Each structure stands twice: as structure tokens, then as C-alpha cells.
């Protein structure tokens, strides 16, 4: 509506001007070089407007002809750029789809069309990797390091190659360089932490962990548990180096972070006992036992005792068991102490309670031991051992990444190298029983990228002499990994 009104206003103005010139035509005389031109003012105005229009049209035509080559060049470059970006996009899709030939073809096309190395270098490197040309990929990544805008991508590509090749030293250097470029990037912090723990660089790993917790790369709860595990390793390392005060200090820090974590509590209790603080060590165990009863705590509680009298040990474990009544591990620990004191009835009572709660291999074997020790009843002992052969396995430390079993807790899985991955639970399948190795030698580091797990079935444990493996033995049979 407003456009129509505006058009009518302009039309009215033009009509009014035309009427005005008709009513007042006036006259104009031009005398130039002996010629006299007489005309009305209106006609002169029309001629002037026409000349101005022709001049403007000519000027535009002249500019168009003059700029035609440049315009054609710009259009050509725009078309090439469009084709280059299209090739770049298709190349990325080919990389994602694993199409090595397509990725290489589109990488070349994008490089030809765009001639912009920062844009095409990553695609070229990924295409080279898909084609198995690691040297070419490394060349592209190294070239990317020379440009500030692509240096981080270059470091990431080289880091991925180093991890895949198992070159831990180079991977560590690259991960630290990546952190210097992008200190808050979560994957940089988690990768660097993983590499430092595999290299047993516990101090640096702790600092990386703290940075990761601040930036949100590690959840607070997991970060706290990881730090407790790191502090335990620093405690073991300090003890090996003869720094006993540092060993105790790190153990205290670990137990403070995770007071109910059995390895931390037992470690602190043993170190306190070595310094003569047996009562304080016992309180550490009792506090942890109240929150989370565990066989490792019971072992430490027995080992740090100053009184070796079996009856005194029974009273000691009665006090411990009272802190968490009706707990299976408490009954088992008290039964073991009672058997050492030859209190057969009390031992049988606690084993019966433990058996009612959860029949397991350990309880049946203890019942077999009790039958033989109390009455010399070999037949009854064999019956218990037969039940043990078919019983469910006892809880053990199991790596949640690869399923490896370990008789004692360790921060690094001996099979896959995962850090702080051991859970105390009843196993179903496992790779093998791994023995602790607190400080893996630097000359034979575990590769950061764990291989696909190969699981094996843990054999039933039966008493010697019945055609089955002896106690503690395992039979490894390759099984397909389950997800």
C-alpha cells in the first residue's frame, strides 16, 4: 500500500512539473561559433538529461570493458574455490568412510583447486594414512607444525602415530607439546596422563591429573580415586629409594583421600606399624573396615599385631568383626583366627554363617581344612574339596578394561596397562592371574593403545590327586571377547 502511495506521489510531482513547463515554456538562445539556436527551456532540459544519461551509460560500458578480464578471473577463481571446498568436503567424507582411493583423489583435487595448505594438508595426511603411507602422513604432519594455525593438528597426528607404533618416549614429548598448545583440551590431558602413568612418572601424572580435574577432563570422584592410586605408587617408589618419611606421607595422603580404599588403608597401617605406631595402624584398619570390609584389611590387621598369641588374635578379630557384624569377610577372618587357636567349634560356627551368606571356593576349602585338622577326617575333607571344585570363585581384583585377574591390587594392569582399573569383584572370565609389579622398567614400556582383549576361561580349582589342576592353577583357553 505504501509503495503505491509513494508511486502516485512521484507521478503527481512529474505531472506538476510538466504542466508548469507547458504553462511557462520560456525561451533559450544559444549563440556559438556563428550559430544561433533558439528553443524552449523545457526542450533544453530534456536534452541535458538525455546527454547526462548517455554519458553515464557510456561510462559504465567503459568500466565494464576495462574490468572484464579481472571479473572473469575472479569468477574463475570463485568456481575453483567452490570446487575445491566441494572436494575437501567429499574427501573428509571419504576419510570417515574409509575410502582410501577416494580420499587420495579428493585430496589432490582440493589441493589443486584451493592451493591453501592449511586447509588441505590435514586431508592429505589422513588420505596418506588410509593408504598405509605413514611416511607421507608424517611429512604432512611435520609440515603442519611449521604453521601456528595448524601446529596443534600436526602434533595430534604425530601423537596418534607414535601411540599406534608404541613409541612411548616420542608420544610423551608430543603429548606435552600438545598440552603447551592447548592446555585445557580434555583429550590432551587424559592422553598425557595415560602416557605418564604407563611410564611410571607418578609425580608428573599427579600434576596432569590436577590440571585435568580443574578443566573437567576427569570427573571429581574418579579424579580423587586416581590421585589416591598415584599417591600409593609414590609411596612405594619412595620406600624403594629409601625415603621412608616420604613413603609414609604419601600413604597418609592417599588414605585421607580414600579412607575406605583397602590398599590405601592397609598400606598406611603397615607403614605406621613399622614406625612402632601399631595402635594407630589398627585404628586405620578399623575405620576402613567399618566402611568397607575386605580380606586385605584383615591380613594387614593380623600382620601389624604385636601379640602373636592365637587366642589374643581371636579376641582381636572379634573386635574387628563387631565393627561390621554379619559380614562374610569378617566371619572368614575370625574363622581363620579361631582355626589357628584350635577353637574348632567357633571356627565352624563362623564358616557356617559365611557359607549361608555365599558359598565359595575359599569357604569350602577352609571347611575341608577344618575337617582334617579337627578329626583327621580325610573323607569329609575330600567331600568339601569336591564342592569347592564346583563353587563360585571368590572375589578378586579384576581389570575392568581387559578382565585380567590379580591376587593383589596394583595401579597398572599387567595385561593392558590401564591405570586404576582394578575392581574387587567376583570374576567370570579373565585373561590371566597377574602378579604385582610396582615399578615397570622404563626399557620395556607398555604401549599406550591397548590391544583388543583376548579373554580366557579360569579353570575350576580342585584338590590335587583328582585329575584336575592343583589349587591356584589356571587353564588358559582362547575365547572370543565379549562386549
Could you walk me through the main structural features you see in this protein, from its secondary elements to its overall organization?
α2 packs parallel to α4 and α13 (278-291) packs antiparallel against α14 (295-303). The protein has helices at residues 2-23, 41-97, 100-114, 117-130, 134-144, 151-165, 168-181, 186-198, 202-215, 220-240, 244-257, 262-274, 278-291, 295-303, 310-323, 328-340, 344-357, 361-375, 378-389; strands at residues 28-32, 35-39, 396-399, 405-406, 422-425, 433-434, 455-456, 478-479. The chain is mainly α and 483 residues long. It is elongated and about 150 Å long. The strands form 3 sheets. A 4-stranded mixed beta sheet has the order 5-3-4-6, with no helix packed on it. The chain has a two-stranded antiparallel sheet with strand order 1-2. Strands 7-8 form a two-stranded antiparallel ribbon. Residues 26-132 form the HemY N-terminal domain. Its main location: membrane.
Amino acid at each position: 500500500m505504501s509503495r503505491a502511495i509513494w508511486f502516485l506521489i512521484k507521478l503527481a510531482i512529474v505531472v506538476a512539473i510538466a504542466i508548469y513547463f507547458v504553462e511557462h515554456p520560456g525561451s533559450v538562445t544559444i549563440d556559438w561559433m556563428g550559430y544561433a539556436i533558439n528553443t524552449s527551456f523545457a526542450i533544453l532540459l530534456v536534452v541535458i538529461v538525455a546527454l547526462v544519461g548517455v554519458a553515464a551509460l557510456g561510462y559504465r560500458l567503459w568500466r565494464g570493458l576495462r574490468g572484464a578480464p579481472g571479473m572473469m578471473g575472479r569468477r574463475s577463481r570463485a568456481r575453483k574455490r567452490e570446487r575445491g571446498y566441494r572436494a575437501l568436503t567429499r574427501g573428509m567424507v571419504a576419510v570417515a568412510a574409509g575410502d582410501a582411493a577416494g580420499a587420495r583423489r579428493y585430496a589432490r583435487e582440493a589441493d589443486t583447486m584451493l592451493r591453501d595448505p592449511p586447509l588441505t594438508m590435514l586431508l592429505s595426511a589422513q588420505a596418506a594414512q588410509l593408504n598405509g603411507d605413514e611416511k607421507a602422513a608424517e611429512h604432512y604432519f611435520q609440515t603442519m607444525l611449521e604453521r601456528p594455525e595448524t601446529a596443534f593438528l600436526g602434533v595430534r597426528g604425530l601423537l596418534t602415530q607414535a601411540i599406534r607404533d608404541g613409541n612411548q618416549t616420542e608420544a610423551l614429548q608430543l603429548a606435552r607439546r600438545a598440552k603447551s598448545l592447548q592446555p585445557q583440551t580434555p583429550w590432551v590431558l587424559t592422553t598425557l596422563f595415560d602416557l605418564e602413568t604407563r611410564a611410571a612418572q607418578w609425580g608428573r601424572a599427579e600434576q596432569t591429573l590436577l590440571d585435568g580435574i580443574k578443566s573437567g577432563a576427569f570427573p571429581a570422584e574418579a579424579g580423587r580415586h586416581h590421585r589416591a592410586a598415584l599417591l600409593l605408587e609414590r609411596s612405594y617408589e619412595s620406600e624403594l629409594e629409601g625415603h621412608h618419611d616420604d613413603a609414609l606421607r604419601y600413604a597418609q595422603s592417599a588414605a585421607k583421600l580414600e579412607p575406605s580404599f583397602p590398599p590405601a588403608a592397609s598400606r598406611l597401617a603397615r607403614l605406621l606399624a613399622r614406625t612402632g605406631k601399631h595402635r594407630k595402624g589398627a585404628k586405620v584398619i578399623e575405620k576402613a573396615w567399618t566402611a568397607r570390609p575386605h580380606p586385605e584389611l584383615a591380613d594387614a590387621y593380623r600382620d601389624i599385631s604385636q601379640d602373636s598369641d592365637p587366642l589374643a588374635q581371636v579376641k582381636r578379630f572379634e573386635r574387628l568383626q563387631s565393627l561390621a557384624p554379619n559380614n562374610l569377610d569378617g566371619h572368614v577372618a575370625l574363622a581363620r583366627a579361631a582355626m589357628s587357636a584350635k577353637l574348632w567349634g567357633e571356627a565352624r560356627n563362623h564358616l557356617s554363617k559365611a557359607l549361608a551368606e555365599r558359598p565359595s571356593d575359599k569357604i569350602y576349602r577352609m571347611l575341608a581344612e577344618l575337617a582334617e585338622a579337627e578329626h583327621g577326617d580325610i573323607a569329609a575333607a575330600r567331600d568339601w574339596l569336591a564342592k569347592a571344585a564346583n563353587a563360585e570363585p571368590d572375589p578378586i581384583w579384576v581389570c575392568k578394561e581387559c578382565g585380567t585377574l590379580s591376587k593383589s591390587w596394583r595401579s597398572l594392569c599387567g595385561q593392558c596397562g590401564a591405570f586404576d582399573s582394578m575392581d574387587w569383584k567376583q570374576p567370570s572370565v579373565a585373561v590371566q592371574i597377574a602378579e604385582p609389579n610396582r615399578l615397570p622398567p622404563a626399557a620395556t614400556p607398555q604401549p599406550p593403545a591397548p590391544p583388543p582383549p583376548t579373554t580366557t576361561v579360569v579353570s575350576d580349582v580342585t584338590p590335587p590327586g583328582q585329575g584336575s589342576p592343583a589349587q591356584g592353577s589356571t587353564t588358559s583357553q582362547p575365547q572370543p571377547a565379549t562386549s
